[in-house]
């Protein structure tokens, strides 16, 4: 699913340099990346998804060398293949629940918002227990509900891979379980891969693999 | 584009107070200068038109503007009265026809205009209902008076006392409405026209009372001597002129000395106008003659010069408001950087965010401009009334 070789990444400020000799993450698996804050876990997710480009080396995601693609190709690749989940949910306060889920289809000309997409969004929201709150402004939702909406937004494009950046970092135990259930249900049903950055070690047993980012960098 | 517009609208609706303030700001920036120009142009045209239809005005020396505004627009500020003989003087000159005007009293806030029936033919007034006044105590009302007071032919209007504390002053007179003018869009709509003599009755220069020779009046008589009857206050005076009591109304004093506020002089030709104006040139005379259009042009020139300063002020205020709006948009964009980054991360084209922001700003500008146009249309329709109410 992901293969990284001789990766080097220099931040524009020049203050930090991320180096990875090799990393391979198998397809269709749920992998967790653990490590202390600020060690470059989020940057790694951005490199895998093509949001950031390496200074040197190769990043192959779903068999494609994303760093070799043109900007438009990278964006379209990300849209169609990767679902992004953020720690802070990143929902738009001025949109209701359904419109937030449909957002990728409203902001990209590569995706067309059809009736079928709207039905799929409604179905997803039903599945995560948000069916009755589709028209509600997201600012009225609890943290757990907001993250479930953000997950629906990531899953709507039916991605082959989910990249989650501390998806439960802002949630209590009950909501953490609910949110992970939604993600893992999708992964198991669709066969999609999951790479999730986390610092919550008690969650690791739910994942197939665990990558210790500090060990990886040292190795 | 439809989706971007949808998102832009959702943002504006969510921040509706901020959006409304910005829309109103745009509307004011666009409307204030254009609205002011419209009001001045439309109102000025209406003022000019009526002034040009009124050739010469004779009135007391003093403010020619006050004289003109009173004679043309029945303003509350009355010039010093002149004697009715001044109207006869114009006629006797053989140079012009004269229409005397006495505008001093009011009824329910509307001016009572004492004049002659020639006024209606001079103004080419058309009657929506009824006829001209024929005897004292009758009146013709403008269309706005009829609408606002819900009056029709046969109803009565009562003149207002000038001061409620002056018991010896002007007594209210009940006048019968015999005609209603068609709307003309000028000051005539908001006036009550009556015979000059009726206004003198209102002033107390003429009055009607019970027959002092009748047995009914015997108890009121204090003494009789050499054809003079002195009576006490119990004598019944009439506050309405009817067919029954009209013969009891009589004037005390010489009508030639009775007051009027102005005379509309209608010269037979240009030469007559010049000659007539020449006759009022004496320095120590108490009466002046003015050409209404000249007075109004002077007033409009003053308004125009004031307008320039106001427009400059509005321009400076408009630029400041525009800069503040730019600042608001920039700050808003700065505050929304995270939102924009999220959009880019989940697949928005780089130009899409810029389009979204442009649509939000564009919507505010368009809505503000539409509001400004609506306000301008309202001002264009009501411009003459606005400028008249500001001047009068």
Please provide a written account of the structure:
The complex is a heterodimer of chains A (219) and B (392). Chain A has 219 residues and is α/β, with parallel strands linked by helices. Chain A has a single domain, classed as Rossmann fold. Chain A is 37% helix and 23% strand. Chain A contains eight helices and nine strands. Chain A has helices at residues 41-49, 71-81, 97-101, 103-107, 115-127, 143-155, 173-190, 213-218; strands at residues 2-10, 17-25, 30-34, 56-61, 64-65, 82-85, 161-165, 193-198, 209-212. Chain A has a five-stranded parallel β-sheet with strand order 6-7-8-3-9, with helices on both faces. In chain A, strand 1 (2-10) and strand 2 (17-25) form a beta hairpin. In chain A, helix 6 runs parallel beside helix 7. Chain A is globular. Chain A starts with a strand and ends with a helix. The mean pLDDT of chain A is 86. Chain B has 392 residues and is α+β, with helices and mostly antiparallel strands. Chain B has two domains: 2-47 and 300-391, no CATH class; 55-292, no CATH class. In chain B, 49% of the residues lie in helices and 19% in strands. In chain B, helix 2 (16-52) packs antiparallel against helix 9 (292-335) and helix 3 crosses helix 9. The longest helix of chain B has 44 residues, at 292-335. The radius of gyration of chain B is 31 Å and the shape is elongated. Chain B starts with a helix and ends with a helix. The model of chain B has no long low-confidence stretch (mean pLDDT 87). Classes of the chains: A alpha/beta (219), B alpha+beta (392). Chain A binds chain B through residues 51, 71-72, 75-76, 78-79, 84, 86, 90, 92-95, 99, 103-111, 113, 137, 153, and chain B through 3-4, 6-7, 10-11, 13-15, 338-339, 342-343, 345-350, 352, 356.
Lay out the secondary structure.
The complex is a heterodimer of chains A (219) and B (392).
Chain A (H helix, E strand, L loop, with lengths): L1 E9 L6 E9 L4 E5 L6 H9 L6 E6 L2 E2 L5 H11 E4 L11 H5 L1 H5 L7 H13 L15 H13 L5 E5 L7 H18 L2 E6 L10 E4 H6 L1
Parallel strand pairs in A: 3-8, 3-9, 6-7, 7-8
Antiparallel strand pairs in A: 1-2, 1-4, 4-5
Chain B lengths: L1 H13 L1 H37 L3 E5 L3 H10 L8 E2 L1 H9 L2 E12 L2 E6 L2 H5 L4 E4 L7 E4 L1 H7 L6 E3 L15 E8 L9 E5 H8 L2 E2 L13 E5 L2 E4 L18 E2 L7 E2 L1 E6 L2 H9 L8 E5 H44 L1 H9 L4 H42 L1
Parallel strand pairs in B: 4-9, 6-8
Antiparallel strand pairs in B: 1-15, 1-16, 2-14, 3-4, 3-15, 5-8, 6-9, 7-8, 10-13, 11-12
